[in-house]
């Protein structure tokens, strides 16, 4: 099989295994059989067993497959890709700073949306989506599109799954949080479900996101080879 097929195969295995083992029925049965912590160990083991080969295959065969689009030389598209990446980093950093009842490790708390949560209740998952889209814009080969397309797929699936899991765990308290906020960025603000206030501006996340972006630009050729977004 060609490199593109192998990349696609491992990407499908990673996403499928993630969906299956985290589904309500399988997750409940495994936790009932082995306990919460062993389940997390099994989950992590399967994730690494499929993600590792995927990364290895892609690293050995960057830009594999037919060219689907060539947008790298278009200044507006390149500028958009950089903006998406910076936004992704700000959201990702902000997801660690902003207390979030929808976070993976959160066990409760209030249902009021503050700061970044008024933009999206899942900043980390949206960050994954934007990261993948930015790289897909700049890398139009089939193998690249499959690999980086996995990030938006994982972000969307992960956010939907997290909402369902939190509703089961927290009930009406989290349903109220979902009703007030949005997964799609800015939808809750546009719809009037929340209102932006001056103290909602995530200045710390913005500053750290910019610092992280500068570090990635400097270190990308050393760690990953090539230019950022390449």
Task: Explain the overall architecture.
With 230 residues, the protein is mainly alpha-helical. It folds into two domains: 1-61; 67-223, no CATH class. The chain has nine helices and no strands. The model has no long low-confidence stretch (mean pLDDT 89).
What would you say about this model in short?
The protein has 9 helices and no strands.
* Tally of helical segments: 9
What is the number of E strands? 0
Strand content: under 5%
Sketch the major β-sheet.
Answer: none
Rg for CA atoms: 19 Å
Encode the helix/strand succession as letters: HHHHHHHHH
- Report the structural category: mainly alpha
End-to-end distance: 25 Å
Q: How would you sum up the global shape?
A: globular
Helicity range: 55-70%
Mean pLDDT: 89
What low-confidence regions span 5 or more consecutive residues with pLDDT below 50? Answer: none
Q: What is the total domain count? A: 2
